[in-house]
Specification:
The complex is a heterotrimer.
Chain A: E1 5-9, E2 17-18, H1 32-37, E3 39-42, E4 45-48, H2 49-52, E5 53-56, E6 62-66, E7 72-73, E8 83-86, E9 102-105, E10 121-124, E11 147-150, E12 166-169, E13 185-188, E14 204-207, E15 218-223, H3 226-239, H4 245-249, E16 252-257, E17 265-270
Parallel strand pairs in A: 1-6, 2-7, 6-8, 8-9, 9-10, 10-11, 11-12, 12-13, 13-14, 14-17
Antiparallel strand pairs in A: 1-5, 3-4, 15-16, 16-17
Chain B: E1 5-10, E2 22-27, E3 30-35, H1 39-45, E4 54-56, E5 59-60, H2 63-76, E6 80-84, H3 90-103, E7 106-109, H4 111-114, H5 116-125, E8 126-130, H6 132-138, E9 141-145, H7 149-152, H8 156-159, E10 177-183, E11 194-198, H9 203-215, H10 228-242, E12 246-252, H11 260-279, E13 281-287, H12 293-304, E14 310-311, E15 318-319, H13 326-331, E16 337-341, H14 349-355, E17 359-364, E18 377-380, E19 390-393, E20 399-402, H15 412-439
Parallel strand pairs in B: 6-7, 6-16, 9-10, 9-12, 10-11, 12-13, 16-17, 17-18
Antiparallel strand pairs in B: 1-2, 2-3, 4-5, 4-18, 7-14, 14-15, 19-20
Helix pairs in contact in B: 2-15, 3-12, 3-15, 5-11, 9-10, 9-11
Chain C: E1 3-13, E2 18-28, E3 31-33, E4 42-44, E5 49-52, E6 54-59, H1 64-72, H2 74-79, E7 81-82, E8 97-98, H3 105-114, E9 117-125, H4 130-138, E10 144-150, H5 155-163, H6 166-180, E11 184-188, H7 192-197, H8 217-230, E12 238-240, H9 250-259, E13 265-267, E14 275-277, E15 283-285, H10 287-296, E16 300-303, E17 310-316, H11 319-329, E18 333-337, E19 345-351, H12 356-371, E20 378-379, H13 393-401, H14 403-412, H15 422-425, H16 433-448, E21 464-467, H17 473-478, E22 482-485, E23 488-492, E24 495-496, H18 515-526
Parallel strand pairs in C: 1-4, 1-5, 6-9, 9-10, 10-11, 11-12, 12-13, 13-16, 16-20
Antiparallel strand pairs in C: 1-2, 2-3, 5-21, 7-8, 14-15, 17-19, 18-19, 21-22, 22-23, 23-24
Helix pairs in contact in C: 5-6, 6-8, 9-10, 10-12
Classes of the chains: A alpha/beta, B alpha/beta, C alpha/beta.
């Protein structure tokens, strides 16, 4: 037993691998050799964690990955507890289906970070790709719980079909942000791309850096939304984010929509003082 | 002088309409006429002449040699890929999917290039649809949403709707109201009672507003920010749809414009169709092009659970529509041997170009005619529905028999089956060889 | 000669009045035989329980509608991947797939066989989609399979009902079965699906008129039930009553049974049709009234359609039901109106034990089982995947066989609506192994008229399942030690080893060829498929005999 399991990439990855066996809570009862023997897939070829990583430590749900693993996909799939730190960039589908624990990527993450997440916390210090916090391919629901905090910008379909949960984007979001969200909150500090919050039912899209509000939303009021303030206060404390006081205390223009649905959703556009 | 032979009730795969009333006339082993067929259908049947070459790396070989080479090559591949092109019967598609499974290969069809966005929208959101017989017999309002009926589905209007009389529309065209919706240059090429033009930039807002009017006629307040043009269009369409007993909402499942905007179009159309069912009836149907494309989706779904973009690498199917389509895989050069089953002349252009770089086993009609390098296995086969019988699905998934009207080369299904059998042979001898080596 | 002697097991073969007797079962060339030479290979079944292979008379596994559900649920598949089994036979290609609520074709075959089931019927196939059903059955290995043809909302049939020409309706039904390779006549929400397709949102009563006052659910039911009986089809008309899933629907169910009094008829997934309503309009169990009727009327049979807690996928030709379910649950919905024949609706669903209605549905199913006095006429089903997966049959068997376990489960569920349920009052009954053998094989085989299935008498198909007794009946029934299909040992030591192709079970009743002309005229007038292209050719295996003709 050790405080932490450290996986250090031995050589740069020259091909994509599927590393969905690297899941912190699964390491709780595994020794070093057992962790090293967990499967890693390179296409059709089944290899082992130890073929790519030096494994240090055992029987711990605290895991650190050292090295550039942007071509390692599916890290922490289905993570339910423990904590994971990826020192650099991570590949696609990091923390897919996560239900608990804390995962943190210090670099950027590929597409589909935190898809189908139901609980826990995923933090990406830099950027994330498309469909962060969305659902599995073809699923009717995206995130159903938990928190995703991205320091930088994200691609298209951020938070698509979210049912519950919180997605925070420190930079910009691409096209179709918060598409068809059922409920939950997506916050974008930068700009959002075209067609935001399409078919929003009851969710909130909060935008500080600029948004072209679709014409199928109607302006309801300008106010200081208590739930946004609460969310920002919580995020600032929990993730040690330094947020402009104007954002937290500020006034927002509230638009209701999307008109084609039950229309109880909203886009909140920050009014810069 | 030989008498012409006539094969009746032949199903045409020129487009997804799959008209099954074609009389194929054959004289001196050539198709001389395909009665009832439209221009697309005539092109589909052609004169029935296909090459029947069998080659490995440019050299003519026997079928057995080609099948054996194909099997060996596919088994040696580290990243095999099975691509199901158009013009295959469901029977051949089933065999091809089986090869992908036993090889733990990737499997895809044209669908991921042409119809993926609509497919995903229907998976995420659901559908409110119907078979063509329902449209024919019930639909009193038919909306053609930016679909080129004349050019791409030429007999749709006369066979299904709005032309023919139906049980609840006894006077055919006169019993129905036809709304044509043009989106920019995408014209609904059909004879209509009402024609509506929508700017591409306004399409989504119009669809959303239309759904809002369907849900509540008193929705204007929610659309205060909307410009007059889309709002008025939406109101006009909503009035027509709400007056309908049964609306058929017909769109192109494979439009030329496959931008992100179109992806939300599918979602909005499905959502609209479902909402209309709260007030009246509506079925939305996306039309597919020819060559039994719906069949490939259906076969893959039955066997794997997924309609396209499937990866068997882990020993079971995984759905990889975002990064694992044929285009993605070929662009990233993540395939070293490709089995192409079907008519290679009907590929999407991006696929055809990328395939030139990969060792290919091509089994299908015209395999030998397309320009390609010398490397690879080429087995010309007959065309399912012309030279071989089988089953194909219409665009609405109704299965129809394919009839052979002409003698031709070996069938694609039996050739693929032979390759599958060869693959199993190679794999099982590899398996049995291992313990022997260990023992010696 | 392929021979096998299964020796020393306790044999449960209720059709032949064998109740746990220790005896050998002799198999030669896929059939049960009276004896074998001593030299024949032996399978030691000492201490084990030997039963005929299971027969599922009502499930949804091979149809265009099942494919609608498969396509709709990629997220469910991705959570339940199914690797290919390792098979021992060169010619049988092991295939992977997806498991979960609606498994893929090959996986379905493997899973059924793994549970000791060797015969399976898809209960709802639109005749125009029959080719798709056949091709999916072709890809469902091991089990023998067939399907029932949906006729209760077929426009041409309704015209014949309207004209009062029941003889021609009978001939038409025969023509459809023979043309598409079906096994039985299926009636789903007669008239109700057509009313929904016409835009009616009201519920359908037994005498609701469909356009003409002559066309009512009652008239459709009488016509098709009589047709099945006059044609002497091996299975009675298979009836899914009107108003499925609605509180108070037991009145419709009882009225339907009464309307068909004296006629052989099968009422399917009765659990979904046994809902009473309190004066305050709340749900209550009406299982007692329904099962009492079945108990006292010999010509009536049914299957339960048990609800099991957990995820499910609802797939039915009863499209209006799916619309209502979608509206109430908010889950995604797929609808397909099918070609003047029938409908199709799909909505994923979850039965939660803390949900009062789900708990009531669960309880009603168990009541039906436990209050039934004749296991031969009320058999096991979950209406897979509607009430739950076929993979939950072992758990269901445990609930029936183990009162202590059952009482523990009753204590766990939400009991708000269970007042008046016999289950809440405490039912002591436990099913015996003999009774389980009846409701899972002998009974369904008899109801289906399958003379060579569901028993181990001489001449029967050698489909045999061998279990290791276990106090936990779910464990016992979920992993048979051996399964023999048509004489082939497909499961050995609990592992699937072989996957031979199954046979197709279908009938080809003869019909007056005079009906062809008018049907052809109808196709010419309203069809989108040519008359000549409607019949399915090349159906696997010869049709089973139809009595009388």
């Amino acid at each position: 037993m050790s405080d932490r399991v450290t996986l250090t990439l031995r050589a740069p990855l020259d091909e994509s691998i599927e590393a969905d066996a690297i899941v912190p809570n699964a390491f709780a009862t595994l020794g070093e050799a057992e962790i090293g023997a967990l499967p890693v897939w390179a296409g059709r070829v089944r290899r082992a964690v130890a073929d790519y990583f030096d494994v240090r430590g055992s029987r711990s749900t605290s895991v650190r990955i050292v090295g550039d693993v942007r071509r390692a996909h599916g890290i922490a799939t289905g993570m339910a507890a423990g904590d994971l730190v990826v020192d650099g960039d991570a590949g696609a589908r990091v923390a897919a289906g996560m239900s608990g624990g804390r995962a943190e990527v210090f670099g950027s993450a590929g597409d589909e970070a935190g898809v189908a997440m139901s609980g826990g916390s995923l933090r990406i210090r830099r950027d994330a790709g498309d469909r962060v916090g969305a659902g599995l391919a073809g699923a009717s629901r995206g995130m159903t719980g938990g928190e995703i905090v991205v320091g930088g910008s994200v691609g298209a379909h951020a938070g698509a079909r979210m049912r519950r949960g919180l997605l925070f984007v420190g930079g910009d979001a691409g096209a179709l942000a918060a598409r068809a969200i059922i409920a939950g909150t997506v916050i974008v500090i930068g700009r959002v791309g075209p067609q935001p919050a399409f078919a929003n039912k009851r969710g909130s899209l909060v935008v500080a850096g600029g948004v072209d509000v679709p014409a199928t939303y109607r302006h309801a009021c300008d106010y200081e939304p208590p739930h946004v303030r609460l969310a920002f206060t919580y995020l600032a404390r929990r993730y040690d984010l330094s947020l402009d006081a104007g954002l937290v205390e500020g006034t927002y223009r509230r638009y209701c929509g999307d008109a084609g649905t039950v229309g109880r959703g909203e886009i909140l556009e920050w009014i810069r003082e | 002088m030989t008498q012409p032979s006539v094969t009746s009730n032949v199903t045409c795969l020129g487009c997804g309409c799959a008209c099954d009333d074609i009389d194929v006339i054959v004289e001196r082993d050539r198709i001389v006429d395909a009665r009832n067929a439209c221009a697309l259908g005539r092109r589909w049947f052609g004169d029935g002449q296909v090459p029947s070459a069998i080659r490995v790396d440019g050299a003519d070989v026997s079928l057995e040699q080609a099948v054996s080479s194909a099997a060996t090559r596919l088994c040696e591949a580290t990243r095999p890929f099975v691509y199901v092109a158009p013009a295959l019967s469901c029977e051949a598609q089933r065999e091809a999917a089986g090869i992908a499974d036993i090889l733990r290969a990737r499997l895809d069809s044209v669908t991921s290039s042409t119809a993926l966005l609509g497919t995903l929208a229907a998976q995420e959101h659901g559908s409110a649809s119907a078979t063509l017989g329902e449209l024919r017999n019930r639909a009193d309002v038919v909306v053609f949403w930016a679909v080129d009926i004349e050019g791409r589905y030429p007999r749709f209007a006369s066979r299904y709707a709005p032309g023919p009389p139906g049980v609840y529309v006894p006077d055919g065209r006169r019993s129905r109201t036809v709304l044509a919706v043009d989106i920019g240059r995408a014209t609904a090429t059909v004879d209509s009672d009402v024609r509506v033009a929508i700017e591409p930039a306004d399409e989504l807002a119009t669809l959303i507003a239309l759904e809002a009017f369907i849900r509540s006629p008193d929705t204007s307040g929610n659309l205060a920010a909307l410009a007059d043009a889309p709002r008025n269009t939406a109101r006009e369409l909503a009035t027509a749809l709400l007056a309908a007993r049964y609306t058929a909402l017909v769109y192109d499942a494979e439009p030329d414009d496959r931008s992100e905007r179109t992806s939300v179009r599918f979602e909005a159309l499905v959502s609209l169709a479902q909402a209309l069912n709260d007030r009246t009836r509506c079925a939305a149907l996306g039309l597919r092009a020819g060559g039994n494309r719906s069949g490939a989706d259906s076969v893959f779904v039955a066997q794997t659970g997924y309609p396209c973009a499937i990866d068997f690498a882990r020993g079971y199917p995984r759905y990889v529509p975002y990064a694992g389509t044929a285009v993605d895989v070929l662009r990233r050069r993540e395939a070293d041997v490709v089995l192409v089953a079907g008519d290679r002349t009907s590929f999407p252009g991006d696929i055809a170009a990328s395939l030139a770089n990969v060792y290919s086993v091509v089994i299908g009609p015209h395999a030998s005619t397309a320009a390609s390098g010398a490397r690879g296995v080429i087995i010309d086969t007959g065309i399912d529905g012309i030279h071989a019988s089988g089953t194909a699905l219409r665009t609405d998934d109704v299965p129809l028999p394919l009839r052979a009207s002409l003698n031709g080369p070996r069938s694609t299904a039996e050739t693929i089956r032979a390759v599958a059998s060869g693959i199993r042979h190679v794999l099982s001898s590899a398996r049995s060889a291992r313990p022997m080596a260990l023992g010696s | 000669m392929n021979q096998l002697r299964i020796t020393g097991g306790s044999v449960y073969d209720p059709a032949n009045a064998v109740d746990g007797d220790v005896r050998d079962i002799c198999i030669e060339d896929g059939r049960i035989v009276a004896s074998l030479p001593d030299s024949a290979p032996r399978l030691d079944a000492r201490g084990m329980v030997v039963m005929p292979g299971g027969v599922d008379m009502h499930c949804h596994v091979a149809s265009s509608s099942v494919n609608v559900a498969r396509r709709l649920l990629p997220e469910d598949h991705s959570l339940h991947p199914a690797a290919a089994p390792v098979l021992d036979h060169e010619g049988e290609v092991p295939r992977s797939g997806a498991d979960g609520t609606v498994p893929t074709t090959f996986t379905t075959g493997y899973r059924y066989a793994g549970l000791g089931y060797t015969t399976v019927f898809d209960a709802a196939v639109a005749p125009v989609m029959a080719r798709t059903a056949h091709s999916q059955l072709d890809d469902t290995p091991i089990v023998d399979g067939g399907f029932f043809a949906l006729l209760g909302n077929d426009d041409y049939l309704l015209r014949l009902v309207d004209s009062g020409d029941r003889e021609r309706a009978r001939e038409y039904a025969a023509w459809v079965l023979a043309s598409v390779g079906a096994y039985a006549i299926k009636i789903v929400n007669p008239a109700g699906v057509e009313l929904w397709k016409r835009g009616t949102k009201e519920h359908t009563g037994l005498d609701t008129a469909l356009g003409s006052s002559r066309v009512t659910p009652r008239a459709i039911l009488e016509t098709l039930v009589d047709a099945a009986n006059a044609l002497q089809l091996p299975h009675a008309a298979h009836i899914h009553c009107n108003n499925l899933g609605l509180p108070g629907n037991s009145a419709t169910t009882l009225a339907t049974m009464a309307a068909l009094d004296g006629r052989r008829a099968h009422f399917t997934h009765l659990q979904f049709h046994s809902y009473g309503m309190t004066p305050e309009g709340r749900w209550r169990s009406a299982a007692r009234e329904i099962v009492e009727y079945v108990n006292t009327h010999q010509h009536v049979s049914g299957d339960v359609g048990q609800v099991m807690f957990g995820p499910a996928a609802t797939i039915t030709a009863d499209a209006p039901v799916e619309y209502l379910l979608h509206k109430s649950s908010g889950r995604k919905w797929a609808n397909v109106d099918i070609e003047l024949e029938t409908g199709c609706g799909v909505v994923p669903h979850e039965y939660r034990d803390r949900n009062a209605v789900a708990a009531l549905q669960w309880a009603i199913g168990l009541e039906l089982f436990l209050l039934s006095s004749d296991p031969w006429r009320l058999v096991l089903s979950t209406d897979h995947p509607n009430g739950g997966s076929f993979k939950s049959y072992p758990e269901l068997i445990r609930l029936l066989m183990d009162r202590v376990y059952r009482d523990e489960q009753i204590a766990r569920v939400e009991r708000k609506l269970l007042a008046g349920s016999a289950l809440a009052d405490g039912i002591r009954r436990e099913y015996s192994l003999r009774e389980i053998a009846i409701i899972t094989r002998a009974g369904p085989a008899r109801l289906l008229g399958l003379r060579n299935k569901g028993h181990l008498g001489v001449g029967a198909d050698a489909d045999v399942t061998i279990y290791v007794p276990d106090d936990n009946r779910a464990t016992m029934f979920s992993t048979p030690r051996y399964v023999v299909k048509e004489g082939v040992l497909v499961v050995e030591e609990g592992q699937l080893r072989r996957a031979p192709a199954g046979h197709r079970l279908h009938v080809r009743p003869s019909f007056d060829p005079g009906v062809n002309r008018d049907i052809e005229r109808y196709f010419d007038q309203y069809g989108t498929v040519r008359f000549a292209n409607y019949p399915v050719t090349g159906v696997r295996d010869s049709p089973l005999p139809v009595g009388g003709r």
